[in-house]
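We emphasize that the prediction below concerns an isolated chain of 459 residues; any contacts that depend on oligomerization or on bound cofactors are therefore not represented. The input was used exactly as deposited, without trimming of termini.
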Amino acid sequence: MNKLYKAFQTITPNDFEKTNKEAQIRNNETNIYVEIPKKRKDYKLSLIGLICIICIGFSFILKNNSTVFATVGIDVNPSVELNINAKEEIVEVITHNEAGQKIVGDMKLEGSHIDVGMNALIGSMLKEGYINELKNSLLISVTGNNKEENEKMRKRISQDIDELLKGNHIQGAIISQSLDKSNDLESLAQKYHISVGKAEIIQQLMKQNSKYTFESLKDLTVNDLNILLTNNKVVDIRVDGEVSTKSYIDQEKVKQIIQEDSQIKQPTYQKIELDCDDGYMVYEVEFTYNGNEYEYELDAKDGKILKKEIEKKTLEHHQDNHTSQHISQSQARTIAMNHAKVSEVSNYKIEKDNDDGVWQYEIEFVSGKNKYEYTIDAISGKVLDYEIEKIKSVKITHEQAKQKALKHAGLSQQQTRDMEIELEDYYYEVSFETSSYEYEYKIDVETGKIIDYEKEQND
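Result of the prediction step, given as a C-alpha coordinate string:
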Protein backbone atom coordinates (compact mmCIF):
# COMPACT_ATOMS: atom_id res chain seq x y z
CA MET A 1 0.00 0.00 0.00
CA ASN A 2 2.89 2.29 0.95
CA LYS A 3 4.53 1.57 -2.35
CA LEU A 4 1.28 2.32 -4.23
CA TYR A 5 0.89 5.67 -2.36
CA LYS A 6 4.47 6.67 -3.11
CA ALA A 7 3.93 5.82 -6.76
CA PHE A 8 0.75 8.03 -6.87
CA GLN A 9 2.65 10.90 -5.28
CA THR A 10 5.36 10.48 -7.88
CA ILE A 11 2.96 10.82 -10.86
CA THR A 12 0.86 13.55 -9.16
CA PRO A 13 3.34 15.92 -7.50
CA ASN A 14 2.07 18.21 -4.71
CA ASP A 15 2.91 21.63 -6.32
CA PHE A 16 -0.13 23.75 -5.53
CA GLU A 17 1.68 27.05 -5.31
CA LYS A 18 3.29 26.55 -8.70
CA THR A 19 0.02 25.43 -10.23
CA ASN A 20 -1.90 28.30 -8.70
CA LYS A 21 0.67 30.76 -10.00
CA GLU A 22 0.37 29.29 -13.48
CA ALA A 23 -3.41 29.47 -13.23
CA GLN A 24 -3.27 33.17 -12.33
CA ILE A 25 -0.92 33.81 -15.24
CA ARG A 26 -3.31 31.96 -17.55
CA ASN A 27 -6.22 33.88 -16.08
CA ASN A 28 -4.43 37.13 -16.72
CA GLU A 29 -3.64 35.96 -20.25
CA THR A 30 -7.33 35.15 -20.69
CA ASN A 31 -8.30 38.63 -19.50
CA ILE A 32 -5.87 40.18 -21.97
CA TYR A 33 -7.34 38.03 -24.71
CA VAL A 34 -10.83 39.21 -23.81
CA GLU A 35 -9.75 42.87 -23.90
CA ILE A 36 -8.30 42.60 -27.42
CA PRO A 37 -11.68 42.43 -29.28
CA LYS A 38 -12.83 45.44 -27.31
CA LYS A 39 -9.86 47.49 -28.48
CA ARG A 40 -10.37 46.30 -32.07
CA LYS A 41 -14.03 47.35 -31.82
CA ASP A 42 -12.99 50.85 -30.75
CA TYR A 43 -10.49 50.94 -33.61
CA LYS A 44 -13.18 49.95 -36.12
CA LEU A 45 -15.53 52.63 -34.83
CA SER A 46 -12.78 55.23 -35.07
CA LEU A 47 -11.99 54.15 -38.60
CA ILE A 48 -15.64 54.41 -39.63
CA GLY A 49 -15.84 57.89 -38.10
CA LEU A 50 -12.72 58.96 -39.95
CA ILE A 51 -14.15 57.67 -43.25
CA CYS A 52 -17.39 59.58 -42.59
CA ILE A 53 -15.47 62.78 -41.91
CA ILE A 54 -13.46 62.30 -45.11
CA CYS A 55 -16.63 61.61 -47.10
CA ILE A 56 -18.39 64.67 -45.69
CA GLY A 57 -15.37 66.80 -46.40
CA PHE A 58 -15.01 65.38 -49.89
CA SER A 59 -18.70 65.90 -50.63
CA PHE A 60 -18.40 69.46 -49.32
CA ILE A 61 -15.47 70.06 -51.65
CA LEU A 62 -17.38 68.56 -54.56
CA LYS A 63 -20.46 70.63 -53.74
CA ASN A 64 -18.34 73.75 -53.39
CA ASN A 65 -16.67 73.06 -56.75
CA SER A 66 -20.00 72.46 -58.53
CA THR A 67 -21.98 75.31 -56.96
CA VAL A 68 -22.62 78.04 -59.54
CA PHE A 69 -21.07 81.28 -58.36
CA ALA A 70 -21.71 83.28 -61.55
CA THR A 71 -22.65 82.88 -65.22
CA VAL A 72 -20.50 84.31 -67.98
CA GLY A 73 -22.21 84.70 -71.35
CA ILE A 74 -20.63 85.34 -74.74
CA ASP A 75 -22.79 86.23 -77.74
CA VAL A 76 -21.89 87.01 -81.34
CA ASN A 77 -24.38 85.01 -83.31
CA PRO A 78 -23.19 81.89 -81.54
CA SER A 79 -24.56 82.12 -78.01
CA VAL A 80 -22.85 80.31 -75.12
CA GLU A 81 -23.08 80.63 -71.35
CA LEU A 82 -20.53 79.26 -68.88
CA ASN A 83 -21.53 78.55 -65.29
CA ILE A 84 -18.51 78.91 -62.99
CA ASN A 85 -17.77 78.14 -59.33
CA ALA A 86 -16.10 80.35 -56.70
CA LYS A 87 -12.67 79.37 -58.07
CA GLU A 88 -13.74 80.63 -61.52
CA GLU A 89 -13.68 77.09 -62.88
CA ILE A 90 -16.26 76.11 -65.50
CA VAL A 91 -18.83 73.67 -64.12
CA GLU A 92 -21.35 73.75 -67.00
CA VAL A 93 -21.45 74.82 -70.66
CA ILE A 94 -24.83 75.94 -72.08
CA THR A 95 -25.39 76.59 -75.79
CA HIS A 96 -28.45 78.50 -77.01
CA ASN A 97 -28.32 77.87 -80.76
CA GLU A 98 -26.73 75.69 -83.44
CA ALA A 99 -23.94 78.20 -83.97
CA GLY A 100 -23.12 77.96 -80.26
CA GLN A 101 -22.97 74.17 -80.48
CA LYS A 102 -20.71 74.48 -83.51
CA ILE A 103 -18.09 76.64 -81.84
CA VAL A 104 -18.05 74.51 -78.68
CA GLY A 105 -17.74 71.36 -80.80
CA ASP A 106 -16.03 68.55 -78.91
CA MET A 107 -14.10 70.86 -76.56
CA LYS A 108 -14.28 69.73 -72.93
CA LEU A 109 -14.36 73.04 -71.10
CA GLU A 110 -15.68 71.78 -67.76
CA GLY A 111 -12.98 72.06 -65.10
CA SER A 112 -11.04 74.73 -67.03
CA HIS A 113 -10.55 78.23 -65.69
CA ILE A 114 -12.94 80.80 -67.17
CA ASP A 115 -10.07 82.66 -68.88
CA VAL A 116 -8.96 79.49 -70.65
CA GLY A 117 -12.53 78.69 -71.69
CA MET A 118 -13.20 82.18 -73.06
CA ASN A 119 -9.96 82.19 -75.06
CA ALA A 120 -10.89 78.81 -76.53
CA LEU A 121 -14.36 80.03 -77.55
CA ILE A 122 -13.05 83.26 -79.10
CA GLY A 123 -10.46 81.26 -81.02
CA SER A 124 -13.18 78.97 -82.36
CA MET A 125 -15.35 81.95 -83.38
CA LEU A 126 -12.45 83.53 -85.25
CA LYS A 127 -11.69 80.25 -86.99
CA GLU A 128 -15.31 79.75 -88.07
CA GLY A 129 -15.61 83.35 -89.32
CA TYR A 130 -18.20 84.55 -86.81
CA ILE A 131 -15.92 87.47 -85.86
CA ASN A 132 -14.20 89.51 -88.57
CA GLU A 133 -13.86 93.06 -89.88
CA LEU A 134 -17.44 93.03 -91.23
CA LYS A 135 -18.96 91.73 -87.97
CA ASN A 136 -16.75 92.88 -85.12
CA SER A 137 -19.15 92.99 -82.17
CA LEU A 138 -19.24 90.71 -79.11
CA LEU A 139 -21.46 90.73 -76.05
CA ILE A 140 -19.93 89.73 -72.71
CA SER A 141 -22.26 89.37 -69.73
CA VAL A 142 -21.44 88.40 -66.15
CA THR A 143 -24.45 87.50 -64.01
CA GLY A 144 -24.28 86.70 -60.28
CA ASN A 145 -25.10 87.86 -56.76
CA ASN A 146 -21.72 89.46 -56.00
CA LYS A 147 -21.73 92.82 -57.79
CA GLU A 148 -18.13 93.66 -57.00
CA GLU A 149 -16.78 90.33 -58.25
CA ASN A 150 -19.03 90.47 -61.33
CA GLU A 151 -17.61 93.86 -62.27
CA LYS A 152 -14.01 92.75 -61.75
CA MET A 153 -14.55 89.74 -63.95
CA ARG A 154 -16.31 91.80 -66.64
CA LYS A 155 -13.40 94.22 -66.89
CA ARG A 156 -10.76 91.49 -66.99
CA ILE A 157 -12.52 89.33 -69.58
CA SER A 158 -13.34 92.34 -71.80
CA GLN A 159 -9.73 93.50 -71.77
CA ASP A 160 -8.42 90.00 -72.50
CA ILE A 161 -10.79 89.60 -75.46
CA ASP A 162 -9.90 93.04 -76.83
CA GLU A 163 -6.21 92.12 -76.77
CA LEU A 164 -6.94 88.76 -78.38
CA LEU A 165 -8.88 90.41 -81.23
CA LYS A 166 -6.17 93.02 -81.79
CA GLY A 167 -3.69 90.18 -81.97
CA ASN A 168 -5.77 88.88 -84.88
CA HIS A 169 -5.86 92.36 -86.52
CA ILE A 170 -9.51 93.02 -85.64
CA GLN A 171 -10.70 96.21 -83.97
CA GLY A 172 -13.52 94.80 -81.87
CA ALA A 173 -16.65 96.51 -80.58
CA ILE A 174 -17.25 94.87 -77.21
CA ILE A 175 -20.55 95.25 -75.39
CA SER A 176 -20.09 94.26 -71.75
CA GLN A 177 -22.37 94.22 -68.74
CA SER A 178 -22.47 92.88 -65.19
CA LEU A 179 -25.97 91.88 -64.14
CA ASP A 180 -27.75 90.93 -60.94
CA LYS A 181 -29.68 87.68 -60.99
CA SER A 182 -33.25 88.30 -62.15
CA ASN A 183 -36.03 85.73 -62.41
CA ASP A 184 -37.90 87.92 -64.91
CA LEU A 185 -34.86 88.24 -67.17
CA GLU A 186 -34.12 84.51 -66.94
CA SER A 187 -37.74 83.71 -67.84
CA LEU A 188 -37.51 85.91 -70.95
CA ALA A 189 -34.23 84.30 -71.94
CA GLN A 190 -35.73 80.80 -71.60
CA LYS A 191 -38.87 81.79 -73.50
CA TYR A 192 -36.97 83.09 -76.52
CA HIS A 193 -34.03 80.62 -76.31
CA ILE A 194 -31.41 83.33 -75.92
CA SER A 195 -28.88 84.25 -73.25
CA VAL A 196 -29.70 86.45 -70.26
CA GLY A 197 -27.24 89.04 -71.57
CA LYS A 198 -28.97 89.27 -74.95
CA ALA A 199 -32.37 89.51 -73.25
CA GLU A 200 -31.11 92.52 -71.28
CA ILE A 201 -29.85 94.24 -74.45
CA ILE A 202 -33.24 93.75 -76.14
CA GLN A 203 -35.06 95.12 -73.10
CA GLN A 204 -32.91 98.25 -73.17
CA LEU A 205 -33.65 98.79 -76.88
CA MET A 206 -37.38 98.31 -76.30
CA LYS A 207 -37.31 100.95 -73.56
CA GLN A 208 -35.66 103.38 -75.98
CA ASN A 209 -37.81 102.59 -79.03
CA SER A 210 -41.43 101.50 -78.62
CA LYS A 211 -41.68 99.96 -82.10
CA TYR A 212 -39.27 97.15 -81.18
CA THR A 213 -40.47 93.78 -79.88
CA PHE A 214 -38.69 90.69 -78.58
CA GLU A 215 -39.90 88.77 -81.64
CA SER A 216 -38.36 91.28 -84.05
CA LEU A 217 -34.98 91.50 -82.29
CA LYS A 218 -34.31 88.05 -80.83
CA ASP A 219 -32.77 86.59 -84.03
CA LEU A 220 -30.51 89.54 -84.82
CA THR A 221 -26.77 89.13 -84.45
CA VAL A 222 -24.96 91.03 -81.72
CA ASN A 223 -23.41 93.22 -84.42
CA ASP A 224 -26.91 94.25 -85.60
CA LEU A 225 -28.02 94.88 -82.01
CA ASN A 226 -24.90 96.99 -81.49
CA ILE A 227 -25.82 99.10 -84.54
CA LEU A 228 -29.27 99.65 -83.03
CA LEU A 229 -27.76 100.56 -79.65
CA THR A 230 -25.65 103.22 -81.34
CA ASN A 231 -28.40 104.64 -83.58
CA ASN A 232 -30.97 104.69 -80.76
CA LYS A 233 -28.45 106.30 -78.38
CA VAL A 234 -28.86 103.75 -75.58
CA VAL A 235 -26.59 105.05 -72.82
CA ASP A 236 -27.11 102.39 -70.12
CA ILE A 237 -25.10 99.78 -72.04
CA ARG A 238 -21.29 99.95 -72.16
CA VAL A 239 -19.74 99.61 -75.63
CA ASP A 240 -15.97 99.78 -76.22
CA GLY A 241 -14.93 100.25 -79.84
CA GLU A 242 -16.80 101.23 -82.99
CA VAL A 243 -19.33 98.84 -84.50
CA SER A 244 -18.77 97.79 -88.12
CA THR A 245 -21.47 98.40 -90.77
CA LYS A 246 -19.38 97.02 -93.63
CA SER A 247 -21.68 94.05 -94.22
CA TYR A 248 -24.35 96.48 -95.48
CA ILE A 249 -24.43 98.96 -98.36
CA ASP A 250 -23.14 102.42 -97.46
CA GLN A 251 -25.05 105.69 -97.39
CA GLU A 252 -23.70 106.87 -100.74
CA LYS A 253 -25.16 103.78 -102.40
CA VAL A 254 -28.47 104.44 -100.61
CA LYS A 255 -28.58 108.00 -101.99
CA GLN A 256 -27.86 106.76 -105.50
CA ILE A 257 -30.76 104.26 -105.34
CA ILE A 258 -33.16 106.90 -103.96
CA GLN A 259 -32.27 109.48 -106.59
CA GLU A 260 -32.67 106.99 -109.42
CA ASP A 261 -36.10 105.91 -108.17
CA SER A 262 -37.46 109.36 -107.31
CA GLN A 263 -35.82 111.16 -110.26
CA ILE A 264 -34.83 113.90 -107.82
CA LYS A 265 -31.20 114.97 -108.17
CA GLN A 266 -30.70 116.99 -104.99
CA PRO A 267 -33.15 116.01 -102.26
CA THR A 268 -32.74 117.46 -98.78
CA TYR A 269 -32.11 114.46 -96.53
CA GLN A 270 -33.38 114.50 -92.96
CA LYS A 271 -32.53 110.90 -92.15
CA ILE A 272 -30.46 108.02 -93.55
CA GLU A 273 -30.14 105.42 -90.82
CA LEU A 274 -29.80 101.68 -90.32
CA ASP A 275 -32.75 100.23 -88.42
CA CYS A 276 -34.67 97.01 -87.88
CA ASP A 277 -38.11 96.25 -89.30
CA ASP A 278 -39.77 92.89 -88.52
CA GLY A 279 -36.43 91.18 -87.89
CA TYR A 280 -34.63 92.55 -90.98
CA MET A 281 -31.99 95.28 -91.13
CA VAL A 282 -33.13 98.16 -93.32
CA TYR A 283 -32.23 101.74 -94.17
CA GLU A 284 -34.82 104.30 -93.14
CA VAL A 285 -34.62 107.35 -95.40
CA GLU A 286 -36.51 110.64 -95.13
CA PHE A 287 -36.14 113.72 -97.33
CA THR A 288 -38.09 116.67 -98.68
CA TYR A 289 -38.37 118.17 -102.14
CA ASN A 290 -40.58 121.00 -103.38
CA GLY A 291 -42.44 120.98 -100.09
CA ASN A 292 -43.28 117.28 -100.32
CA GLU A 293 -42.10 114.69 -97.78
CA TYR A 294 -40.69 111.36 -98.93
CA GLU A 295 -40.08 108.22 -96.90
CA TYR A 296 -38.19 105.20 -98.18
CA GLU A 297 -37.24 101.89 -96.66
CA LEU A 298 -34.47 99.85 -98.31
CA ASP A 299 -33.09 96.37 -97.67
CA ALA A 300 -29.75 97.08 -95.99
CA LYS A 301 -27.95 94.25 -97.79
CA ASP A 302 -28.94 94.68 -101.44
CA GLY A 303 -30.64 98.10 -101.51
CA LYS A 304 -33.99 96.80 -102.72
CA ILE A 305 -36.74 99.37 -102.10
CA LEU A 306 -39.20 97.88 -99.59
CA LYS A 307 -41.37 100.90 -98.95
CA LYS A 308 -42.02 104.30 -100.51
CA GLU A 309 -44.43 106.94 -99.25
CA ILE A 310 -44.98 110.48 -100.47
CA GLU A 311 -46.88 113.06 -98.45
CA LYS A 312 -47.78 116.12 -100.48
CA LYS A 313 -48.19 119.39 -98.67
CA THR A 314 -50.82 120.58 -101.13
CA LEU A 315 -53.04 118.01 -102.78
CA GLU A 316 -54.67 118.63 -106.11
CA HIS A 317 -58.26 117.56 -105.49
CA HIS A 318 -60.01 115.74 -108.27
CA GLN A 319 -63.41 117.35 -108.60
CA ASP A 320 -64.39 115.02 -111.38
CA ASN A 321 -66.38 112.01 -110.21
CA HIS A 322 -66.89 110.58 -113.66
CA THR A 323 -65.59 107.06 -113.29
CA SER A 324 -65.24 106.80 -117.06
CA GLN A 325 -62.02 108.79 -116.66
CA HIS A 326 -60.61 106.32 -114.16
CA ILE A 327 -58.28 103.53 -115.16
CA SER A 328 -59.76 100.07 -114.72
CA GLN A 329 -58.93 97.60 -111.96
CA SER A 330 -57.18 95.45 -114.54
CA GLN A 331 -54.98 98.38 -115.60
CA ALA A 332 -54.16 99.20 -111.96
CA ARG A 333 -53.19 95.58 -111.37
CA THR A 334 -50.88 95.59 -114.40
CA ILE A 335 -49.22 98.83 -113.24
CA ALA A 336 -48.57 97.38 -109.78
CA MET A 337 -47.24 94.05 -111.02
CA ASN A 338 -44.98 95.71 -113.60
CA HIS A 339 -43.60 98.02 -110.93
CA ALA A 340 -42.98 95.04 -108.61
CA LYS A 341 -41.42 93.11 -111.53
CA VAL A 342 -43.47 89.98 -110.83
CA SER A 343 -45.53 87.88 -113.23
CA GLU A 344 -47.46 85.61 -110.85
CA VAL A 345 -49.25 86.65 -107.69
CA SER A 346 -51.57 85.17 -105.08
CA ASN A 347 -53.83 86.54 -102.35
CA TYR A 348 -54.73 89.44 -104.61
CA LYS A 349 -56.95 92.23 -103.22
CA ILE A 350 -57.97 95.55 -104.78
CA GLU A 351 -60.20 98.33 -103.46
CA LYS A 352 -61.10 101.72 -104.82
CA ASP A 353 -61.18 104.59 -102.36
CA ASN A 354 -61.50 108.36 -102.24
CA ASP A 355 -58.81 109.86 -100.03
CA ASP A 356 -59.39 113.56 -99.45
CA GLY A 357 -60.82 113.98 -102.93
CA VAL A 358 -58.24 111.80 -104.66
CA TRP A 359 -59.57 108.58 -106.17
CA GLN A 360 -57.07 105.76 -105.81
CA TYR A 361 -56.70 102.02 -105.93
CA GLU A 362 -55.41 100.12 -102.87
CA ILE A 363 -53.81 96.88 -104.08
CA GLU A 364 -52.33 94.00 -102.09
CA PHE A 365 -50.81 90.74 -103.32
CA VAL A 366 -48.19 88.09 -102.55
CA SER A 367 -45.38 86.84 -104.76
CA GLY A 368 -42.76 84.43 -103.45
CA LYS A 369 -41.94 85.40 -99.87
CA ASN A 370 -42.87 89.06 -100.30
CA LYS A 371 -46.13 90.87 -99.65
CA TYR A 372 -46.74 93.95 -101.81
CA GLU A 373 -49.03 96.88 -101.06
CA TYR A 374 -49.63 99.61 -103.65
CA THR A 375 -51.56 102.87 -103.79
CA ILE A 376 -52.21 103.95 -107.39
CA ASP A 377 -53.87 107.15 -108.61
CA ALA A 378 -57.15 106.07 -110.19
CA ILE A 379 -56.98 108.74 -112.93
CA SER A 380 -53.30 109.05 -113.88
CA GLY A 381 -52.21 105.52 -112.93
CA LYS A 382 -49.24 106.97 -111.03
CA VAL A 383 -47.80 104.88 -108.16
CA LEU A 384 -48.40 107.11 -105.12
CA ASP A 385 -46.72 104.79 -102.62
CA TYR A 386 -45.90 101.14 -102.12
CA GLU A 387 -44.51 98.75 -99.55
CA ILE A 388 -42.75 95.38 -99.80
CA GLU A 389 -42.71 93.16 -96.72
CA LYS A 390 -40.87 89.87 -96.25
CA ILE A 391 -43.18 87.11 -95.03
CA LYS A 392 -43.27 83.35 -94.59
CA SER A 393 -44.28 81.12 -97.48
CA VAL A 394 -48.05 81.62 -97.87
CA LYS A 395 -49.84 78.31 -98.44
CA ILE A 396 -53.43 79.16 -97.52
CA THR A 397 -55.65 81.87 -99.00
CA HIS A 398 -57.67 84.68 -97.43
CA GLU A 399 -60.81 82.60 -97.95
CA GLN A 400 -59.35 79.53 -96.27
CA ALA A 401 -58.21 81.62 -93.30
CA LYS A 402 -61.69 83.12 -93.00
CA GLN A 403 -63.38 79.70 -93.09
CA LYS A 404 -61.05 78.33 -90.38
CA ALA A 405 -61.91 81.25 -88.10
CA LEU A 406 -65.66 80.91 -88.73
CA LYS A 407 -65.56 77.17 -88.12
CA HIS A 408 -63.73 77.64 -84.82
CA ALA A 409 -66.26 80.29 -83.75
CA GLY A 410 -69.15 78.03 -84.79
CA LEU A 411 -70.62 80.71 -87.06
CA SER A 412 -71.54 81.21 -90.69
CA GLN A 413 -70.56 84.35 -92.56
CA GLN A 414 -74.21 85.40 -92.66
CA GLN A 415 -74.18 85.60 -88.86
CA THR A 416 -71.26 88.05 -88.84
CA ARG A 417 -70.54 91.63 -89.86
CA ASP A 418 -67.50 93.85 -90.45
CA MET A 419 -65.37 90.95 -91.67
CA GLU A 420 -61.72 92.00 -92.15
CA ILE A 421 -58.76 89.84 -93.20
CA GLU A 422 -55.20 91.23 -93.11
CA LEU A 423 -52.06 89.36 -94.14
CA GLU A 424 -49.18 89.98 -91.75
CA ASP A 425 -45.62 88.63 -91.98
CA TYR A 426 -46.44 85.10 -90.79
CA TYR A 427 -50.18 85.02 -90.07
CA TYR A 428 -53.59 86.19 -91.20
CA GLU A 429 -55.44 88.49 -88.84
CA VAL A 430 -59.16 87.73 -89.18
CA SER A 431 -61.66 89.90 -87.30
CA PHE A 432 -65.46 90.09 -87.32
CA GLU A 433 -68.43 90.82 -85.07
CA THR A 434 -71.83 89.46 -84.14
CA SER A 435 -74.57 91.26 -82.25
CA SER A 436 -73.06 90.04 -78.98
CA TYR A 437 -69.34 89.46 -79.49
CA GLU A 438 -66.17 90.65 -81.24
CA TYR A 439 -63.78 88.00 -82.60
CA GLU A 440 -60.14 88.26 -83.60
CA TYR A 441 -58.00 85.39 -84.93
CA LYS A 442 -54.36 84.91 -85.90
CA ILE A 443 -53.93 82.05 -88.38
CA ASP A 444 -50.55 80.73 -89.57
CA VAL A 445 -50.06 81.41 -93.30
CA GLU A 446 -48.20 78.11 -93.86
CA THR A 447 -50.11 75.59 -91.78
CA GLY A 448 -53.50 77.23 -91.27
CA LYS A 449 -53.14 76.62 -87.54
CA ILE A 450 -54.89 79.05 -85.21
CA ILE A 451 -52.03 80.78 -83.36
CA ASP A 452 -54.20 82.97 -81.15
CA TYR A 453 -57.77 84.19 -80.83
CA GLU A 454 -59.84 86.53 -78.70
CA LYS A 455 -63.57 86.72 -78.06
CA GLU A 456 -64.88 89.78 -76.28
CA GLN A 457 -68.39 90.89 -75.48
CA ASN A 458 -69.61 93.93 -77.39
CA ASP A 459 -69.99 97.09 -75.34
